[in-house]
Amino acid sequence: xxxxxxxxxxxxxxxxxxxxxxxxxxxxxxxxxxxxxxxxxxxxxxxxxxxxxxxxxxxxxxxxxxxxxxxxxxxxxxxxxxxxxxxxxxxxxxxxxxxxxxxxxxxxxxxxxxxxxxxxxxxxxxxxxxxxxxxxxxxxxxxx
Length: 144
Description:
The protein is mainly alpha-helical. It is built from 5 helices and no strands. It has one domain (about 1-135).
């Protein structure tokens, strides 16, 4: 039990760091005009009110690693596959129903789905990198 809580804490931490990197990348691409060049209207203002929930949600999404074996070897494929979860929620639930930005967020621009996949892939890379460097032994998960 104690080991499971320790791993869950590590997964949450890795997810929060991924959320921080993801958020800073979203802000930087919006601030620098890269998103506008791609025809995507995503350009948030960097503030604590915007950043805090994104970091917390990143941590909550990090808890999904409890069900996935993380090895010492870093894997871009694993990072991409894990990042599909938050991407699909953003594209299929948040944009169309909460933010009223259309299916897949296409009201923000035609490349919005690709931008979302890219930003969330940055979350996945960060989290998997942290976990692959932090895990010394294979963690036990709920799913054997």
